[in-house]
Amino acid sequence: MFIELVGGSVCAAAGLVTFGVRSRSSRLFAPSVWRGVAHRRAIALTFDDGPSEATPRLLELLAREAVPATFFQCGVNVLRLPGIARQVAEAGHEIGNHSHSHPRFYLRRAGFMESEMRQAQAAIFEATGRAPVLLRVPYGARWFGLRGAQKHLGLLGVMWTAIALDWKLSAAAIARRLVRAAVNGAIFCLHDGRGLEPRPAIGEMLEAARRLIPELRGRGFHFETVSQILCPTN
């Protein structure tokens, strides 16, 4: 009986940690959001892992469609391509912190996570003149100690309502997946990079975005940044 109780407690604790690490709605390890307010027919497009050499093509598409977006940038990529990071800011898009070198945070010490976030903050500010207020942790995986690190840097965690899987799906499949997930206040996660990889192939994502934007507009949605979609009075 005792062994059964102990075993049940261990399983419950493991389940809670797993939920805290990966669940989009978890706030166990740090303040986090995964959707915006539900009373506006708005969607936030977010792009992780940039900037990359392909980002200007995405910026052209967003400018053509007059769509604001939120870019979660890696510090190493910003240091490599500061001009492109600056283009994102100058185009009026929101910039968030996506760590410095895109490591997995789980099983890491609080000091390691804070250092990663702090280095990215510095790189983004140096290139763009903006200090991010939003954080998306790499792979969406959080861990013990993240709460304090976010508090020290004034960052709010951002997960997603739906992730595009745009590193492995075709453009048509990406667009279908996100259209199915479209609801008021949805935050969609796409990628304008592939971790720290130079010259990433993001053609399928770009084609998916080209299809997705008019489709969502045709269904009555408009587009906002993450900060805008969280604001109840926007």
CATH level-4 homologous superfamily: Glycoside hydrolase/deacetylase
Write the CATH architecture name. Answer: Alpha-Beta Barrel
Overall mean pLDDT stands at 94
Structural class: alpha/beta
Percent of sequence in beta strands? 5-15%
Largest sheet: 6 strands, parallel
CATH topology: TIM Barrel
Low-confidence segments: 1-7
Radius of gyration: 18 Å
Number of domains: 1
- Silhouette: globular
General description of the model:
Helices cover 45% and strands 15% of the residues. Helix 2 packs parallel to helix 8 and helix 7 runs parallel beside helix 8. The chain is α/β, with parallel strands linked by helices and 234 residues long. The radius of gyration is 18 Å and the shape is globular. The strands form two sheets. Strands 2, 3, 4, 7, 8 and 9 form a six-stranded parallel sheet that branches. Strands 1-6-5 form a three-stranded parallel sheet, with no helix packed on it. The protein has one domain: Glycoside hydrolase/deacetylase (TIM Barrel). It has helices spanning 2-22, 55-65, 75-80, 82-90, 110-128, 146-153, 171-180, 203-218, 226-230; strands at 32-33, 42-50, 70-73, 94-97, 134-135, 156-158, 162-163, 186-191, 222-223. Mean pLDDT is 94; it is low at 1-7. Helix 7 (171-180) links the parallel strand 7 (162-163) and strand 8 (186-191). The relative contact order is 0.21. The longest helix is centred in the first third of the chain and has 21 residues, at 2-22. It has nine helices and nine strands.
